[in-house]
Amino acid sequence: MTAPHPLGDSHMATFVLVPGAWLGAWVWEDTADALRGHGHTALPLTLTGLAEQADRGGPDTDLETHIADITGFVERNDLREVTLVAHSYAAAPVTGAAARLGDRVERVVYVDSAPFATGMRMLDLMPPEEADRLRREVAESGDGWRLPMPPFEVLGRYGSVEGIDADREDVLRARATDQPFGTYTQPLAGPAEPGADVDRVLIACRDFTGMLEAGVPMLAFLGRPPWRRFDLPTGHWPMLSAPADLAGLLDEAAA
C-alpha cells in the first residue's frame, strides 16, 4: 500500500540513514549506493560506541549521546531539507533529533519501527522478563554497559531474519558490535514531535505489516494522516535482505 506525496513532483532528497542496534553505517552501503543511483544524496551515519566508533563508547553512552550524534552531524554539515531514516532502535534517537532540528528536517522515515513518545525507552518495548534478562547479561558479560548482539538463532526474537542469506549472516556476525546499554535504559527526554509540516513516512516489513493489519492499538496512529505507509515484504533488516527494494521505496517516498 502506498500513498501519494502531497507535493506531487519528485525532487532529489538528502537522506541521513541511521542504523539500528549493534550496527554501523556499513549496513546501509547497498541501500545508499542504490539511492545515489536514483540521484539522491545518501549519508549513512554510525552512532557513538558502534562499528568504527566503538572506541568512543563507554558506560556514559546513552540515548542523549545518540541524539547528539544525529543533530551534530546535520548541523556540522549544514544539511537542509533532510530526510532522517530510522531503522529499528534508531527510532528512539531519530525521534529526539527530528524534534530538535526544526526546519532542517523535511521528512522522517521509520523503517520497521515507530516514533517514541516522551519518557519512553527501548526496554519498554519488551516484556519485563526479557528486560531483566538483558540487564543480567549486561552485568555479567558486558562490563555493566555493553549489550552483545544475540546469536543469529536468537536474533529472530527481535525481528524476522527473512531474506538474510548465509553470506549476509556471516557479515552481520563479523561486523556487529556491542550496543551501549544506556541507549536502552534512558527515556527519551524533551519534545518528541517534529514540526507540523514535516512529512511522516512508515516503511513496514512483513511482521510489522501484520501487526498493523491486526489493529494493534498503540500503532493505530500510523494508519492515519499525516502518516504515509509503504509495505516491503521482507524481514526486519531490509537493508541487508532487500536493499534495492528499500531504496526504491525511499525514492518513492521522496517523490
From TrEMBL:
Residue ranges constituting the AB hydrolase-1 domain according to the UniProt record: 15-247
Gene3D superfamilies: alpha/beta hydrolase
Domain of life: Bacteria
PANTHER family tied to this protein: AB HYDROLASE-1 DOMAIN-CONTAINING PROTEIN, AB HYDROLASE-1 DOMAIN-CONTAINING PROTEIN-RELATED
Protein's name in the database: AB hydrolase-1 domain-containing protein
Organism: Streptomyces sanyensis
Lineage start: Bacteria, Bacillati, Actinomycetota, Actinomycetes, Kitasatosporales
